[in-house]
Amino acid sequence: MLLAASITARSGEMVLDAGTGAGAALLCLAARRPGIIGVGVEIDRQTAEIARQNFKDNGLANIFCVQADIAALPFRAGLFDHVMANPPWFSPLSSPSPDPQRALAHRATPGLLAAWVAAMIRVLRPRGSITLILPAASLSLACAALHTQCGGITLRPLWPRAGLPSKMLLVSARKAVKSPDVILPGLVLHDEWGITPAAQAILSDGAGFTNASSR
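Above: the chain sequence. Below: its structure as tokens.
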């Protein structure tokens, strides 16, 4: 939901969701931005079929799922206006999930983030946006990969509670621009009463982020 809320796609624009899983981010984005053309890419056959069924069940004729490896996307260069992803980020040194599908979805391998970013940028049009949701520990790798062909990196911290370090970040950039990097207002997710009103507005009420980076 937070990833979808940060995408500024307009009706008729094409959006790629790399590693779409069951399609949650595209489902949320289609609800927020009617008229987009969405393509989810998922390497696992069974999960890709679940995403297709989810899109069908929700009547989304312009949202599709393709089974493919993100590092070898089967699309022409410059096809998409926006690309987004929640890449696998669990450390390869951590204990893998006993569920092969969960292990594939969450466990990072060396060089995976850079390979995903390079593949996503290739299919992104000039001045199009790339947006990632990542753990803070992956920030330096993400910025290094993005800076090869993108500028105008924007960073939005997601704080679990006020005063605590940010564990997750939304990182965006635009292809073939030279704009300066910016740190956007962050979002506190929880307070003593539960989910904060600002987070609730995004998670349940359909609000988008303010101060989002423009096209």
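Helices lie at 2-5, 24-32, 45-57, 100-106, 112-122, 139-146, 197-203.
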